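Task card 7
Instruction: Convert sequence to structure tokens.
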Amino acid sequence: MKKIIIAIIIILILCMIITGALLFMLKNSDVPVEENGEGDVGEDINLNEITVEPVTDNISFFSVQNCIQGYLNTINLKNSSYYDNEDKQIVTNNEIAEGICNLLSKEYIDENSITTSNVFNYIDKVEENLIFIPLKMNYTFLKNMTKYAIYGFCMDWDNNYVKDLYFIVNVDESNKTYSITPLNTEQYKSINDIKLDRKEFTIENKDNINDFILQPITDQYLCQQYFLLQKRLMLSRPEISYSYLDEEYKNKRFGSLENYNKYISENKAHILKMSIKGYEVERIGDTSQYMCKDQYGNYYIFNVEKVLDYKVLLDVYTIEQEKAIKAYNGYNNRKKIAYNVNKWVQMVNNKDYQGTYNLLNTTFRDNTWSTLEQFENFIKQNYPSYYEVEYGQYEENGESSVQTIILKDIEGKEENKTVTLIIKLKDEMNFEMSIAI
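Output:
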């Protein structure tokens, strides 16, 4: 036991000697030691910086869109809710002004000293129903608040473009209320010019008028929204709807904005009335594909990455879909003929004169219509409406097949048309045809 105690004492003495030597060496070292040094703390963080990103989730995007649409409805002095059935105003101008102030941000009100007496001097004068079309939306998320910067335009119910609009929408995450800051359009050239700051504030609940209500999202809702957006853009801002077209499809189907505008002009009566009658949804990796069908049997495909990051195809025949190719390869000749007849009818319904002209047998085409213009006049004169097809007699004649069809006017304006088509199948999904005249 005595030996163990002696050993411990020796070890302690050695530790003290070593520690003292280390301290002496450090004191006399040539390497400077910073007083109160805290080591490597990494990169400096600027707490005043703010991260602004595009909105990518559907719930936020469509919820904010609804806020702005509600604002446009509120500032509309001819809003039907302000009048009775006899067109007599049942809400005073002061009550309308109060409703508008309840939606404006406190910051905007304070900055302009807005009251119910002068609020109409600081907002757009609106005396008609307007539809808001969002084109860009950014956001920044703070501790208790989310701020959105929005760029879009409004159109009237006659599908006329009215003006561009810029807004900031503030959402108080603690009580789920919102306020709106309308921005002067002339001061902005793009959404990136809108500066979102880090200033947070509480938004008072104004009798639930400014509740931030989350939009329920379903596949059906998204199909309807993309379909409706495409329709409205084609009618009011065709150049923007053109930019949303799939690049390969755009070049193959139209080739130029001029041809696209002609397509819209030729189909305007249909576009005005078109509504979604069916849809199908497929997930392909990070892409959601929404295939919509209207009452005329026309198809619209939306390949969506994130909200407004999407591409459109206005038919299913210009670029064949993988599912259709796979199915077609398993068909017998008669079913392939029926598939191609249906494709031809879709082209006729779409007023796709170039597409139907290209399908014709070259000898038949050149002998019957030497120019596209002549063929276009033939289609306009003989097939001016929208048709569904009923298949009649079928027979195979050497390398070609003869298919008789009955075209029924979907709108019931014309009598049924009996048409005989001579079709020759070629490699892959290609074919050529003639029309018995």
